[in-house]
Design goal:
Pfam families: Dynamin_N. This protein has about 120 residues and is of the alpha+beta class. Helix content is about 35%, strand content about 20%. A hairpin with a 2-residue loop joins strand 2 (about 75-80) and strand 3.
C-alpha cells in the first residue's frame, strides 16, 4: 500500500501533499578538497559509474553539477548561456580552466543495467 493510498483510506489530510513535496526537494551536496584527494573517485563510486575524470595530477578544474534524470544529458553553462554538449566534450572540459560550469543529468540506472541495455541492442 502506498502512502497516498494509506492517506485516502484513513482520511489523513496534508501528509500525502507533504510527502509528494519532499520527493521534489533537491538535496545539494558539495565536495571540496585539495587536488588529488579523491573527490572525483568518491563521486564516481557513489554514482556507480566513471563520470568524473581521475588522474594523479589536478584534473577536475571546473564546477560540475550532477542531477538524476531519465536519460543522460550533458551541458556547459557559460554565464546565462546553457549549451548541450556530448559526453566526450563533458569529459574533456573537466580539465579546462574556465569561467563556466558543467551540468550532467544522468540516469540513475546502475552500470550493470546499462550493460544489459547495450547487449540487448
Amino acid at each position: 500500500m502506498t502512502i497516498s493510498e494509506i492517506c485516502q483510506k484513513f482520511d489523513i489530510d496534508g501528509v500525502n501533499e507533504r510527502f509528494q513535496k519532499s520527493l521534489e526537494d533537491k538535496i545539494e551536496i558539495g565536495f571540496l578538497g585539495e587536488f588529488s584527494s579523491g573527490k572525483s573517485s568518491l563521486v564516481n563510486s557513489l554514482l556507480g559509474r566513471d563520470l568524473l575524470s581521475i588522474n594523479p595530477l589536478p584534473t577536475t578544474k571546473t564546477v560540475v553539477e550532477i542531477n538524476f534524470s531519465n536519460k543522460d544529458e550533458f551541458f556547459k553553462k557559460d554565464g546565462d548561456t546553457i549549451s548541450e554538449i556530448s559526453e566526450d566534450e563533458f569529459t574533456n572540459l573537466q580539465t579546462k580552466d574556465g569561467k563556466f560550469h558543467l551540468i550532467a543529468n544522468i540516469s540513475a540506472a546502475t552500470e550493470r543495467e546499462r550493460e544489459r541495455e547495450r547487449e540487448s541492442k
